Amino acid sequence: MKEHWLLDPQITFLNHGSFGATPRAVMARQDEIRLRLERQPVRFMVRELESLLDEARSDLAAFLGADTSGLAFVPNATAGVNAVLRSLDLDKHEELLVTNQEYNACRNALEFVAGLSGARVVVADIPFPIASSEEVIARVMEKVTDRTRLFLVDHVTSQTALVMPVERLVREMSARHIDTLVDGAHAPGMLPLDLRAIGAAYYVGNLHKWVCAPKGAGFLYLREDRRRSIHPVSISHGANSMREDRSRFLLEFDWTGTFDPSAWLAVPEAIRFVGSLAPGGWEEVMQRNHELALRGRDILAAELQIAAPAPDSMLGSMAALPLPDGTSKVAASLYGDPLQDRLLEEFDIEVPIVPWPHPPKRLIRISAQLYNEVADYEKLACALTKLLS
Questions:
Q1: Residue 207: which of 188, 229, 192, 191 has the closest Cα?
Q2: Interval 15-40 mean pLDDT
Q3: pLDDT tens digit sequence for 343-366
Q4: Share of the chain above pLDDT 70, in %
Q5: Of residues 382, 386, 364, the one with CA closest to residue 374
Q6: Which terminal residue of the chain has fewer beta carbons within 10 Å of its beta carbon, N or C?
Q7: How crowded is residue 334: how many other Cβ atoms within 10 Å of its Cβ?
Q8: What is the crossing angle of helices 49-64 and 267-276, to 10°?
Q9: Which residues in 143-277 belong to E strands, given as ranges?
Q10: What domains appear along the chain, each with residue ranges and CATH number?
Q11: Which residues pair with 323 in a beta bridge?
């Protein structure tokens, strides 16, 4: 499988979860799109782009179990979260619910929007290690009040790699007339998705991670009753377009200014190509990665002499494990822990060391993608033993 990616063959790459990695075939498709654009930029942008986006949107909608009319491309999940939050008409009497495991960038966006309106951010503490998804339900629901306006939740948490019980959480919130914004940055390509069945008011996701599309490919999906109220962060021509042949939602999100659309338009090739790498298609890809992540977790847990910190059912293609405390009491910059640097410099292993919940506490998070194998995790386990002893 490794021949399909451009990854440095000298590096044991166990961090697909951060930025993904794009296969050669998908990059070739992106190059074709860019060449087509530059041969006649006006024709491409003015006369061809809209229909090309519709074609790509149709393929993506089928992959996600979504309606094409509620699906827009965005650069990344954080952009989608910001679009939703900045469109809400909040007041100081309302509460925004989030978990302590929400991705930092999106938590910052929530705090910023709350600060503008005076709304209160309420945090549900989810433990890690964790015994079952029932703990998530209980911790979240005990924080719901009659003032709760919105619930922001990761589908797969970035720090602890937990798959949250999103469908049940959405149902519980909907029964109380509370909207849910699902931050699905890691979910597409890691988990089978049916966005219609999940039923969240808002769902955002990345495609550059587990779908392996080029960087700059993400999406925002809105339930039908929310499509007229959400606007992109960058307001552009679509805001006052007189056209009646397309929805205001698509007119606004499909064009926010001149940009390179090649990452979005290469998404269908990423879906097709990665799915072709296993006889059973995407179902087999996801299952293979899940099983490998569990195997890698078990290897590390045995080496560290700790119990698995989460049940198998709460993991996808990543797993996180607690490490002995670090030396710093200040949160390291993104991927700035000295242990992470030593693993790369001394053992040619790229894997994130995550400060969580607060320094000096920290986790190691492994990813499993088709180019990985059991020997990668065995190598990591040996390296950790030497560096932590």
A1: 188
A2: 98
A3: 999 999 999 999 999 889 999 999
A4: 98
A5: 382
A6: C
A7: 10
A8: 40
A9: 148-154, 179-184, 202-206, 218-222
A10: 2-21+279-388 (3.90.1150.10), 26-272 (3.40.640.10)
A11: 362
CA distances from 115 to 10, 86, 118, 144 (A): 47, 12, 5, 20
- Which residue is it, tokens 């978990």? 99
Region of 335 (left: φ > 0; alpha: ψ -120 to 50; beta: rest) is left
Q: How far apart are CA 179 and CA 67, in angstroms?
A: 19
Tokens of 33: 């799109």
Tell me the residue length of the chain: 389
* Structure-block tokens of residue 166: 């999103």
For strands 148-154 and 179-184, give the pairing.
Answer: parallel
Return the structure tokens found at 193.
């998705």
CA distance 227 to 219: 14
Q: Are 43 and 256 in contact (CB under 8 A)?
A: no
- Return the amino acid letter for 220: L
Q: What are 307's two structure tokens?
A: 């119990």
pLDDT per position as a tens digit, 283-302 = 999 999 999 999 999 999 99
Token readout for 128 is 């890690």
Is the pLDDT assigned to residue 175 strictly greater than 90? Answer: yes
Q: How far apart are CA 204 and CA 248, in angstroms?
A: 19
In a 10 Å sphere around its CB, with 0-12 CB exposed, 13-18 middle and 19+ buried, how is residue 157 labelled? buried
CA distance 112 to 93: 16
Measured CA to CA, the distance from residue 138 to residue 143 in angstroms comes to 9
Q: How far apart are the first and last CA of the chain?
A: 34
Q: Are 186 and 156 in contact (CB under 8 A)?
A: yes
CA-closest candidate to residue 249, choices 224, 223, 221, 230: 230
**Cα torsion 194, 198, 202, 208: sign:** negative
Bridge partner list, 350: 13
